[in-house]
Design a protein that fits this description.
8-stranded mixed sheet, binds flavin-adenine dinucleotide, FAD/NAD(P)-binding domain, alpha/beta
């Protein structure tokens, strides 16, 4: 039987980054995925490394707004009523975690990770030869009404004051100067200057996985659900035979419960589904950065395959068939602000954001199993946080002093 120090389950941004950090600390690592690296959620996201993303998306607490969400009247959200009996307990916990005091607590927990997100990405991009993928143009939120812009600026001023989140207000002329192909339906915007973005998120994960293999790491295609506790560690079955390790990292993103539930854990891992569709741009139209149409909750991101339109959240069962109604609702709205041409592929992509109710990940040791480590639940920010979370986990696993207090992310909080 092959023996290694650590098996990492899941080769999305979170798992690949953890594997690289463990390897950097002298551990032999086998990285396992049933597909290739970076082919699921970490492939289809908006490609933003969200240096500004300290304050989480709260669950709406205003009753009138809640009713509009519940009846699918707002394009940024879609609820499957048939899923309610199963997801209601998680929604209730998310709602409870969305009071101003709880949101502030989450933001304090997120800040040390978010503050280092670009630094930790660059520390992997440089040796992988991938720094050229990064676009350092920030991202822009645009508003169609002056009143919506004013409200957003008020909130932004508070976030700057309390959490140090930078922004620049933009009038219509400044929006046009930065993004000349946006239409004049826009009253103004807010530039978030600190985040960076990439034009092919899957390629970035794949490039990190290549670096891992070049440095002697081994990638195996196998089903993580075959994981078993052995006498002195963990064993996983692969087509090339079983692999044993003293330690295992669970980084299966939205599928993490497929492994933690059989081991007896009941973490409230919920799913916010999201879609993307690429469009060709008309004529020579381009975008220099991702643009969020803030009043309608969708984003346009320039990607190698075209303009990627990504949607807000769909509250549904993880494995329910796709229902891309949000794409149908927002595509005409997107055409109002940018000259989108035809679709670049026949069917939209469906992804699943892995979300714990307090919108913080679980990073750290499993409470009841020796050698089992968790790294999942990175919600809207898994692409952003993969490298920094990988560093923190590897420091904890190897007995180094963690760069930040890991207690906000401990499993025992649930
Ligand atoms: C529309 C949309 C836009 C987003 N935009 C952004 C953004 O701009 N910035 C940002 O930071 N985040 C964004 N996110 C969130 C981000 O994409 C996720 O948080 C992140 O990709 C999660 O990474 P992960 O590695 O945990 O999961 P994944 O990337 O899903 O990786 C999990 C891996 O586990 C594997 N797996 C599952 N089950 C098994 C099994 N039984 N055996 C073996 N392998 C298995 C899968 O094949 C997969 O490769 C967005 C998400 C969506 C849906």
């Amino acid at each position: 039987m092959l023996r290694t120090d650590v098996i990492v389950l899941g080769a999305g941004m979170v798992g690949v980054s953890a594997a690289l950090h463990l390897q950097q600390r002298g551990r032999s690592v086998v990285l396992v995925d049933r597909r290739g690296p970076g082919e699921e959620t970490s492939y289809g996201n908006a490609g933003l490394i969200q240096r500004e993303g300290v304050v989480p998306y709260p669950f709406p607490r205003d009753i009138a707004l809640l009713a509009r969400y519940a009846f699918n009247q707002l394009p940024e959200s879609n609820l499957h009523w048939s899923a309610l009996p199963r997801i209601a307990p998680w929604l209730l916990r998310y709602w409870r975690a969305s009071t101003p005091a709880e949101v502030a607590k989450t933001a304090r927990g997120a800040r040390p990770l978010v503050e280092r997100c670009i630094i930790e990405h660059e520390a992997l991009m440089a040796p992988a030869g991938l720094l050229g993928l990064v676009r350092r143009t920030g991202y822009m939120r645009v508003y169609r009404s002056a009143s919506a812009l004013e409200d957003a600026l008020d909130k932004q001023r508070v976030d700057r004051e309390v959490y140090g989140v930078n922004f620049e207000p933009l009038d219509a002329a400044k929006v046009a100067a930065l993004e000349p192909h946006l239409k004049d339906t826009i009253a103004g915007g807010i530039l978030m200057p600190d985040p960076v973005s990439v034009s092919d998120p899957g390629a970035l994960v794949n490039g990190y996985a290549t670096l891992f293999e070049q440095r002697g790491g081994r990638f195996e295609q196998a089903d993580a659900r075959s994981l078993e506790a052995g006498r002195d560690g963990w064993i996983i079955g692969t087509p090339r035979g079983p692999i044993a390790a003293a330690a295992v990292v669970l980084a299966l993103g939205p599928w993490s419960d497929d492994v933690f539930r059989p081991l007896g854990y009941r973490f409230p891992l919920g799913i916010k589904r999201g879609y993307h569709q690429h469009f060709k741009a008309l004529g020579n139209a381009t975008l220099n950065r991702p643009v969020l149409d803030a009043e309608f909750g969708y984003l346009l991101a320039p990607m190698t395959r075209g303009i990627r339109l990504t949607t807000g959240a769909e509250f549904a069962l993880r494995d329910a068939p796709p229902t891309p109604v949000q794409l149908a609702r927002v595509t005409p709205l997107a055409r109002d602000i940018f000259p989108l041409g035809e679709k670049a592929e026949p069917a939209p992509w469906l992804g699943r954001r892995p979300c714990l109710p307090d919108m913080l990940p679980i990073i750290g040791p499993a409470p009841s199993h020796r050698g089992l480590w968790f790294n999942f639940g990175h919600h809207h920010l898994g692409f952003t946080l993969g490298p920094v979370a990988g560093r923190l986990l590897a420091e904890m696993m190897t007995g180094e002093k963690p760069f930040t207090d890991p207690s906000p992310y401990r499993a025992e909080r649930f």
